[in-house]
Design a protein that fits this description.
The chain contains 1 helix and 10 strands. The protein has 148 residues and is mainly beta.
Length: 148
């Protein structure tokens, strides 16, 4: 089973809107110990688009379906930020189209061998064979994972 992105054969990306998403952000770093009493009084505004998006015309969000990438912290229901303008390199997590099927996997490209590698031992690597059609649709830049 591949990690699918929608229940339809062709996932429909959600284009990131031009609207700014403003959130308050503390300028203090967060420690896993006792908080600083001064941290309550320090904040600045940030736009999530500036932090998550490098090229807005080439950035899309896809929802994940499946469990083949859980070892990379990508779970069913997560939203992946995918940038089509980044050239995929060995080791990147990519949204790939192999023989007209979309899948999210880690790209392996060494010594003329190309594989799509799952981050779950239940799924063997997919070795791209001669005659198969592989397109790297985009590179995963962020995983928006809900904690609660």
């Amino acid at each position: 089973m591949k990690t699918e992105l929608t229940s339809t054969p062709w996932p429909v990306p959600v284009h990131v809107p031009d609207t700014k998403v403003w959130l308050d952000m503390s300028t203090w770093t967060v420690r896993a110990g006792f908080p600083s009493p001064a941290a309550d009084h320090t904040q600045k505004r940030i736009d999530l688009n500036e932090h998550l998006i490098r090229n807005k015309e080439a950035t899309f969000i896809f929802k994940v379906k499946g469990d083949s990438m859980i070892g990379a912290g990508i779970y069913e229901g997560d939203a992946l930020v995918i940038d089509r303008s980044i050239e995929a390199k060995h080791g990147n997590i990519v949204l790939a189209v192999l023989n007209n099927d979309f899948t999210v996997k880690r790209l392996y490209r060494r010594g003329g061998v190309v594989k799509l590698v799952a981050e779950n031992n239940l799924y063997p690597p997919i070795v791209v064979k001669s005659g198969e059609e592989l397109t790297v649709w985009g590179v995963v830049t962020y995983n928006l994972h809900k904690l609660l």
